[in-house]
Design brief:
By secondary structure, the chain is mainly α. The chain contains seven helices and five strands. α3 packs antiparallel against α4 and α4 packs across α7.
Length: 177
């Protein structure tokens, strides 16, 4: 299974695999809009990372214990979830896919952008709540930036917004562009 998709091959129907931002940018490219070339790391790669070492279950426990009444509670949950990410080993399949995507884009520094499956809809918009990293100029920096994108699905702002609108972030997924 390939975890990578060229941006110019995406359609709006690819949201589940590539997230809202990437699917919309791919569609814009297909319509002739000026969009820089890109590679998308699919939501399946995110799911592979989340399954290893019990991360998904640990995040579920943190969210279940959260007392969401103030932003401080969401910040505490963010800290706990991000700590859980930090202690996880990045599986080799994830490292290899990120390295392959970075190499495919040449030697120019790239932007690494989140593309969540639930970030844009007619009812909701998580705009500005997920991570973007500019001027990524090495494979190691790309790996770190991708992990930061995945962690941003559980930022305090995203947790608060999701709680307010009843969005289950554990059933969401994150592709990276």
């Amino acid at each position: 299974m390939s975890f990578l998709r060229p941006l110019d091959t995406l359609l709006l129907s690819d949201v589940a695999e590539c997230g809202g931002k990437a699917a919309r940018l791919g569609e814009a490219m297909r319509l002739g809009c000026p969009v820089p070339p890109g590679i998308v790391l699919s939501t399946e790669l995110y799911r592979r990372f989340m399954q290893q070492g019990g991360l998904q279950g640990e995040i579920a426990s943190i969210l279940a214990a959260m007392q969401p009444s103030t932003m401080t509670h969401f910040q505490a949950a963010e800290w706990a979830i991000h700590s859980a990410f930090r202690v996880r080993r990045v599986p080799q399949v994830v490292v290899n896919a990120i390295r392959e995507a970075f190499r495919a884009l040449g030697t120019t520094p790239v932007a690494v952008r989140s593309s969540a499956t639930n970030e844009d809809s007619p009812e909701l918009s998580f705009v500005g709540q997920h991570f973007t990293c500019l001027d990524v100029d090495s494979e190691e920096a790309a790996i770190e930036a991708v992990i930061e994108c995945w962690k941003s699905l559980f930022s305090a702002k995203a947790l608060s917004y999701a709680h307010h609108f009843g969005v289950d972030l554990l059933s969401s997924s994150m592709a990276v562009l």
